Amino acid sequence: MAGLSIWHVVIFAIVVILLFGTSKLKNLGKDVGGAVKDFKKSIKEDEAEQARLKEPLTIDAQVKNAENSIKS
Fold it and tell me: Which Gene3D superfamilies does this one have (predicted)?
């Protein structure tokens, strides 16, 4: 059979834990989680920026943006 049984998964997990140790796996999990979190954050910021660029600007909004850019 080409499918994986629960025993295949258990044996694979044991081998991975023996090879790398729990501390390295824990650090790897933190790194991957941080990368995913940063990726989601950048996607949300990009979507907000795209939405801001698509909306038409009134004169008041243009003046406000100009004031904010001068303050920065």
Answer: 1.20.5.3310
Q: Are 53 and 45 in contact (CB under 8 A)?
A: no
Give pLDDT tens digits for 21-51. 988 989 999 999 999 999 999 999 988 888 8
- Rounded to an integer, what distance in angstroms lies between the CA atom of residue 45 and that of residue 62? 21
List the domain boundaries for the chain. 6-71
The total number of residues written for the chain in this structure:
72
Cα separation, 53 vs 63, in Å, equals: 16
The pair of structure tokens assigned to 48 is 């907000």
